[in-house]
Amino acid sequence: MEVQKAIQQRRSVRRYKDAPVEEEKLTLLLEAARLAPTGSNTQSGRFIVIRDDKMRTQVAQVSHDQKWMKQAPLFIACVADIRARIPSGELTLDEQSPQLELKQCIRDVSIQGEHIVLQAEALGLSSCWIAWYTQNEIRQVLEIPEDKYVVAVLVIGYADETPAARPRKSLDEIVYHEKWQG
Ligand SMILES: Cc1cc2nc3c(=O)[nH]c(=O)nc-3n(C[C@H](O)[C@H](O)[C@H](O)COP(=O)(O)O)c2cc1C
Hints:
The protein is an alpha+beta fold. The protein has a single domain, classed as NADH Oxidase. It has six helices and four strands, in the order H-H-E-H-E-H-E-H-E-H. The protein has helices spanning about 5-10, 25-35, 55-60, 100-120, 135-140, 170-175, and strands spanning about 45-50, 75-80, 125-130, 150-155. It has a four-stranded antiparallel beta sheet, sandwiched between helices. The site of flavin mononucleotide has 13 residues, from strand 3.
């Protein structure tokens, strides 16, 4: 599938068929993250593959109890490891953390996450980004140390709905030329 088609037909899907994601496809999804660009090639992303029923239930619960999530057979938690940029010293990361390096890591892991999403689309899978949780709660469920930041959980599976395209601003509204024109 062409990149253009994957970009245009992707939707956030919130109903999934009861069908697993094949191992070969999972490997391609993770490869898509691995091959993504990152600032200074720091590669701070770590990816937790979650397929267990109980774990998916707990992740959905701490994501404001979005029950529909559990229909998807596969979750990939996209975690930023700031140690790629700040190797040592005490650090606690949460929604208020000011570090520039954390912002850089979140940026990079987001790019990796979108690589996964577009690769999923190209493989006939669908997905939805999830970021409606607190660091504290999601870290506890996934046993992630306090110096890591959960950028998103991607829920992935075979769609059982075909949502229409959601509205977007026009190019006129979002594109400026040569300098800021707000
Ligand atoms: C970072 C991020 C976090 C999101 N978190 C959630 C979420 O917790 N629950 C949800 O149902 N959708 C979530 N979404 C999906 C957005 O609501 C969706 O992308 C937006 O409404 C546009 O729809 P579309 O993806 O179908 O084009 C998230 C999307 C992004 C990019």
